[in-house]
């Protein structure tokens, strides 16, 4: 009733409702006898199709265009363009992103917030700073005077966590120490999972720990058994943590599994950097090893590296931008490769074509991070942090409900509350985030119960319908369509169903009386039945002959000279 | 020559143009920018389902005044708030459920209990009792009196119609000035005549007829239920009983659907309710099973999509038409056996009269917010409803949506009932397995309800 009332109050008037015609290829569900169900399904499908079309339209209406660098002739190369050229070519506003922070106490690591507005840098000697890089407002600046290994913002720039010599500490925006997480000993890397409100840390002891930052609980700790770990990244699309280890393996972790979900031997030496491609929905992963090679992996098959190449100088750091630009920092330079060509499998070890290169002599390059929603790449190195311009790296159109670079304090508060309400439980993290809302796999029969002796009434409903021949086989067909697109499969399924039904029909065959009658019938020689039997046999022979001929014809269509001898 | 363009954002496009303006928002519907959209939507649906349970406080008020059990309720035609109730001590009260006041109070309307009550028109009430009289009252004359006087005033009925035996029920024709009463026979009366104008009874029936109701949209058709487990349809144009259905158990109440003239609802002693299509009386169209004791009363919502039933198990249940299980269930500690139920004319509230002498008002939708709802709140409610509907198949969300707290005796009784039904089913199955194949076929529960259909 509630829906009735609310609909009556707020349903769109008929004149304002959409008048788009129903999509052509929409299913009609004519096989469904229940009128109400059929109408509901049709309406749902129509709405879904319409909204799909609207999404497509909305793509055309996106206001901003991504940055780019284009050459006219084949002889021109984009990688010849230096940062100075780019800065000179673009407007002052756009060139604002190019910055050099000369800092003591390096090497430095830099991270951005999810909306790309704020930046946190940490030097190994204990210099921590968080600031709004666009306006240049410094939020906090700390000299911690102990080894700091990593920094990350929590839900937004109002809190950040620093991996210090012994523990992880959480500071607020103004640099006031809020928490000392004593459970996280000697942390080396930090990652924050924003939708689950989890702070994941890994340390020299080789433990991966998840701390819920909304409740303060240590959710789970996993013993990796692979020694100290200094390489960690997250897949933003499924919140799986990727760790790179000393023995060359890369492991994928979720809070609900005590062992890695995937274990992969990626390199022959230690793994020194891992990154996951956001632009392909977390499909590709790139790893760099101390052995000097950089490898590209397909996260769906893990069979073999799609592509691998040697980076000059070894010990590379890799990072993937929002739009799929891959930055590799090794030797004395940072190389950026542009998207479509990276993902193409390439058997021979060769790097994908270069898009941009930037010499950065201050080694080691400890961190690479692309600024979300901007064409900026922050390189953390021994002499500080440098931000370079990478045209095309950043997503041009942001969504205010997810991450807004221009949000005010009210919007920030609002979003914090909303995201707390929408907090996903840690055990929902799986490799496939789309498993929710899918059909459950059919339950197995209980052990020790013979399915054949199970009375009809106790069987599952679908099976009962199938036995009665009332099951909707078309639903299974649509499943088959999704997976194989093969009508033959559907036909096979239908055939199987039919056979099953027939089998059930023949149930009364073994009855004693019928058997007796059949036996009796066999012994009686009745001239009428004899003639009928002969007739049937003749017909069967005829059918057989026709089939034989058609088979022969299909085998050899071409006329042969020996055809004239063929007896018809 | 290299063409270079770098992303730049003008703050002017993203900040409010003037102070006080809303901040401009931007949308990018690309699913890549909305990670975990499905998981987040599920969490939102779960929260919505939990909120619904949290805010489901259906009880609104108890209308006091009776000193004995309330057995009959009759809502006033063309009024949302007014309802008449009558109790076992022979008192009739007309309540205004909105202001929770008495519009009229007729103490001692009958000697003994008042067994039937209905409105003749907007101002007059017809009542019948075990004192074998039908009386007509003016329900509005008290409205002018001040409330202190209203209690004391001994009212005179406008008319008295002497009946034959103990009267059980009374109902008025929708348009014409005639009404039907039931004792051991069904009698049709004219308002202006003191003797019945017609006696209609099924030929072989001699037991008492406990309820009689006119069909609201086909007003010459009349249905009755009796203590001899029968349910009879009459037509006053022919003056005959047209059909009689003998059922397994006796029925306690009946109600015609206000929107489907052929649908009739029966509240049965065997803990369930049945809807029948009067064109096909051999099986009920739907069984409604959840009560753990006899169902004593039922009433359709004016929309015809829902109905309410009250039971001997001290609960009130609200059913969706066509959905035979999992009704909404209402109860309170102080409510005793529910003897009468009614929907209000706006379908938003439910009234119940019970053994403890109170008439209670309940929300028909337990978690509905009463009062003014802003447009923003309304849209949030609609969004939550859509989410709940979309995710109702999810195990966790469905569990939250289905869970109801019910009193322990009711819970235990339901458990026991389930166990007994299961045992019976198993026994039946075993018996069937040991008989010759095909000799005893299972019979649907729906088809066991009706024993015989006679005409």
TrEMBL record, chain A:
GO terms for cellular component: 90S preribosome; small-subunit processome. The keyword Repeat applies. GO terms for biological process: maturation of SSU-rRNA from tricistronic rRNA transcript (SSU-rRNA, 5.8S rRNA, LSU-rRNA). Involved in nucleolar processing of pre-18S ribosomal RNA. Residues 474-488 have a biased composition (Acidic residues). This is U three protein 7. Residues 492-503, 531-556 have a biased composition (Basic and acidic residues). Residues 504-522 have a biased composition (Basic residues). It holds the Pfam family BING4CT. WD repeats lie at residues 264-298. Residues 354-433 form the BING4 C-terminal domain. Keywords: Nucleus, Repeat, rRNA processing, WD repeat. It is found in: Nucleus, Nucleolus. InterPro entries: BING4_C_dom, WD40/YVTN_repeat-like_dom_sf, WD40_repeat_dom_sf, WD40_rpt, WDR46/Utp7. Residues 469-568 are annotated as: Disordered.
Automatic annotation (TrEMBL), chain B:
Residues 418-429 have a biased composition (Basic and acidic residues). Keywords: Nucleus, Repeat, Ribonucleoprotein, WD repeat. InterPro entries: Sof1 (IPR007287), WD40/YVTN_repeat-like_dom_sf (IPR015943), WD40_PAC1 (IPR020472), WD40_repeat_dom_sf (IPR036322), WD40_rpt (IPR001680), WD_repeat_DCAF13/WDSOF1 (IPR051733). Residues 9-33, 418-455 are annotated as: Disordered. One of its GO terms (biological process) is maturation of SSU-rRNA from tricistronic rRNA transcript (SSU-rRNA, 5.8S rRNA, LSU-rRNA). Gene3D superfamilies: YVTN repeat-like/Quinoprotein amine dehydrogenase (2.130.10.10). Residues 364-450 form the Sof1-like protein domain. WD repeats lie at residues 107-138, 288-320, 331-372. One of its GO terms (cellular component) is small-subunit processome. It is found in: Nucleus, Nucleolus. Its main location: nucleus. Belongs to the WD repeat DCAF13/WDSOF1 family. This is WD40 repeat-like protein.
